[in-house]
Specification:
The complex is a heterodimer. Chain A is α/β, with parallel strands linked by helices. Chain A is 39% helix and 32% strand. Chain A has helices at residues 29-40, 57-73, 85-93, 105-110; strands spanning 5-12, 15-24, 45-55, 77-80, 100-102. Chain B has three helices and five strands, in the order βααββαββ. The chains are: A alpha/beta, B alpha+beta.
């Protein structure tokens, strides 16, 4: 059985990128939350959600928490998401306008 | 029955009961997705149902009051409607801090409501338009 969610960390275009694949829900969100907190310690982060197959409000809370943490730390959080479940949930809840959302890592890395 | 009358289509009922564990939410989503596809719903509707069932199932688990989560999909041949039921749930179970699972469900399915006699969330799903 494949893992419901996988996380890969890399450095691209001078930014730390956390790439998430699979499903973010009540079962997997705590794992994502912990990894994001580890990576965010005073550093900007690109959260690549382009390969996320499913996300619900549990996952959205993690994303919003990461955005608030970035603001409080004086850094930035950039989200990479293309048309799919992530942007669908952003639209449904109206939170998309509060987040820095980009279509590619290159676009996100270029954002200051 | 007179020969010019056809036999009414039978209703269909699909039932899933799982231990109240976050690891089982993926199975609940797979169940509702598979059932919706069998009933002829398109992928947009399937995605919406997966999200609604995940929100409701998470609320059952988060309530901490129940050992199992139940998901039922039923069809009503006379209207072409399907109803997805998730429980056990009470009205207060779908509220949260700043992001309510109930708001997500209502944004997807405005007719969704808690039926207190059944102790469950009922999600009426419109039939797919004829193609």
């Amino acid at each position: 059985m494949t893992d419901p969610m996988t996380l890969d960390v890399s450095s691209e275009a001078g930014r730390t990128v956390l790439r998430v694949r699979g499903e973010i829900d009540l079962a997997t969100a705590p794992v994502l939350e912990e990894r994001v907190q580890q990576l965010q310690r005073g550093e900007p982060l690109v959260l690549d959600l382009a390969a996320v197959d499913f996300v619900d409000s549990t996952g959205l809370r993690v994303i919003l928490g990461a955005d608030t943490r970035a603001t409080n730390q004086g850094t930035s959080l950039a989200i990479v998401a293309v048309d799919g479940p992530v942007t669908r949930l952003f639209d449904l809840t109206g939170v998309g306008s509060r987040l820095a959302v980009f279509e590619s890592i290159a676009d996100a890395a270029a954002h200051e | 029955m007179p020969p010019h009358m056809s036999e009414p289509a039978a209703s269909e009922r699909f039932h899933l009961e799982l231990p109240s564990d976050p690891a089982n939410l993926a199975t609940a989503r797979l169940f509702v997705a598979t059932t919706a596809r069998v009933l002829g719903y398109d992928e947009d509707a399937v995605a919406d149902l997966k999200l609604a069932v995940s929100e409701a199932g998470s609320a059952v688990i988060a309530s901490g009051r129940h050992e199992t989560v139940t998901v039922v999909v039923e069809t009503t041949p006379t209207t072409g409607m399907a109803t997805v039921t998730v429980g056990p749930l009470r009205p207060g179970d779908l509220t949260g801090d700043h992001l309510n699972p109930g708001d997500v469900i209502l944004a997807l399915f405005p007719g969704a409501h808690i039926d207190e006699t059944r102790d469950a969330l009922l999600i009426p799903v419109e039939p797919e338009p004829a193609r």
